[in-house]
Amino acid sequence: MLCQAARIKALDSLTAFGGRSELVKPHLPASLKRFIEMVPKAELHVHVEGALEPELMLALAARNGLPPPYPSVEAARAAYHFADLQSFLDLYYAGCGVLRAEKDFYDLAMAYFRRAAADRVVHAEVFFDPQTHLGNGLGWEVFMPGLARAAEDAAAQLGLSAAYIVCFRKEMSAASANDTLSGALPWLGRGHVIGVGLDSSELGNPPAKFADVFDRAARLGLQRVAHAGEEGPPEYVWEALRVLHVRRVDHGVHSLEDGALMAALNASRTPLTVCPLSNLKLKVYEGQLEARLTQLVGSGLVVTVNSDDAAYFGGYAVANYGYLAAAAGLGVAQVARLAANSFEASFFLGPGSGGEARRAALLQQVAALAARAVEEEEEEAEERRRRRRRQ
Ligand SMILES: [Zn+2]
């Protein structure tokens, strides 16, 4: 808990980083851009429903004989301007209405996996919202086989390993979350559903409401994460840690306002799954986002970079790394650290996961690519100096 005076002081200390507009981006050096494209990454905060691009949304509506949610792809994209988290969620849940059959879920997940693999995502831990689909009259036997088959095909065809995390919607009841966990039971132990999370509307929905269902998930051996500190205060992050015992905090950017919380996250090496373009589009820390992200990356916390709801927020992994690198003025070494963090924070590649050998091999790839990018970076700097001398 942070007293008001301490919070104001913490906020004041951040303004020293401010001043740059989020709309004016410095040009990324070609070497850094290539490195961001090539470096292997794990994605740990992505909602499969948020990868529903307008083209697929309209195609699925037509396939299922439903009225199109938008008259055209352009109209859909034009509607994607959000005032805050809730204004996004309203459109997001409406978009989910086109998902009706097993094949729809397969096509949706495969579209994400193909796009992620193109951005050199080699491993993904993917959220989905069963309550949304159950509310649309679908059963687990409809969406889960499609999602599971896509994860298997992503591994076989794309070399991208993937698993799913069931998210409970925070504005819904604890009883509904508990029923949802019961529905997931047949899918546990098959390697597809590995954990539970909390997503959706944050303000007014503190995490402690879900203490019992998270306890039950722990007894089932499931991993636990939660969206906290996206729009909500640091107290919600404390609750997620102390009451839900989460292993990762999703978003968590508002942790910056509480020095004791930052210290606790650092000491426990609890990762934050940060989603820069999501924060930008949902106006989190509006006008100060670049300053906050800069401070977060420089804090020493296990910060990871993720795309959240890529179809709605304007970019997948590479776009998020690129935006953050430009916003926070990062070089190759810092981006390499973020990629390494994504493996450390993964439930499949992190310490004690059994995936250490694969992580070591991935870290070697990161180091080799970084060494080459640093050489290119130096050549580019030398070329700029030569050009200046000639002028
Ligand atoms: Zn999210």
TrEMBL record:
Annotated Adenosine deaminase domain residues: 40-348
Cofactor: Zn(2+)
One GO cellular component term: cytosol
Keyword annotations from UniProtKB, A to Z: Coiled coil, Hydrolase, Metal-binding, Nucleotide metabolism, Zinc
SUPFAM superfamilies the UniProt entry points to: Metallo-dependent hydrolases
Coiled-coil regions, chain positions: 359-391
Family matches, as Gene3D superfamilies: Metal-dependent hydrolases
GO terms under biological process: adenine catabolic process; hypoxanthine salvage; nucleotide metabolic process
GO molecular function, one term: adenine deaminase activity
HAMAP family: Adenine_deaminase
Protein name per its UniProtKB record: Adenosine deaminase domain-containing protein
Species, as recorded: Chlamydomonas incerta
Taxonomic lineage from the root: Eukaryota, Viridiplantae, Chlorophyta, core chlorophytes, Chlorophyceae
